[in-house]
Amino acid sequence: MNFKQQIQNYKPFNEQEAKDKQTILNYIDTFDDVLTRNNECCHFTASSWAVNRERTKVLMIYHNIYQSWAWSGGHADGESDLLNVAVRELKEETGVENVKIVKPAFFSLEILTVDGHVKKGKYVSSHLHLNFTYLLEVAENEVLRIKEDENSGVKWVKIEEVEKMSEEKWMCERIYRKLNEKLLK
Fold first, then answer.
1. Percentage of the chain surpassing pLDDT 70?
2. How distant is the alpha carbon of residue 180 from its chain centre?
3. Could you say which DSSP state residue 9 is in?
4. Cα separation of 116 and 126, whole Å?
């Protein structure tokens, strides 16, 4: 099954996912290239909701651009295997080496707004991330390390404290809360 079919077959968890699913499918049909940043309007990204075995903690990073605790993730940059993107980004941003894929299908989908910012000395205009989140598991005894050009902290956060950690109100209310609800369901 191709990626578009996976999206079409995805059962939305809530209204946000239902609306974002339809919009993502429309963007796939409208734009030639949503897999790379060449599409400056919107492009694919993949994130991980990396949890411990007991499902009581989430591995989070302190994101330098957003100045907030957040999940790990990154741009597809032409790669259509978004699960691989999520795993690669988790390893790069946290230093973990062993990642268990809880299930290969994406765990959630969302459209994320990105405000204009400077990255590597160049201005990046505001745009949308068509994001797919994967549920991954990491042992708590894995060695953690920061990726200095992207984050300045990596740590385990108790599920019930995730929303208190992040400075991004919308992400807390609409995304992190949803991910925790789905996890505990």
1. 99
2. 14
3. H
4. 4
Whole domain around residue 19: which residue ranges?
Answer: 3-116+123-184
Number of Cβ within a 10 Å radius of residue 56: 14
Residue listed under structure tokens 């299908």? 105
For residues 27 and 35, is the Cβ–Cβ distance under 8 A?
A: no
Predicted TM-score of the model (pTM):
0.95
Q: Could you tell me which of 31, 32, 129, 37 has the C-alpha nearest to residue 79? A: 37
Q: What is the DSSP secondary structure assignment for residue 184, as one 8-state letter?
A: H
* Tens digits of residue pLDDT in 15-55: 999 999 999 999 999 998 999 999 889 999 999 999 999 99
The count of domains in the chain is 1
Q: How many CB atoms lie within 10 A of CB 100?
A: 13
CATH for 170: 3.90.79.10
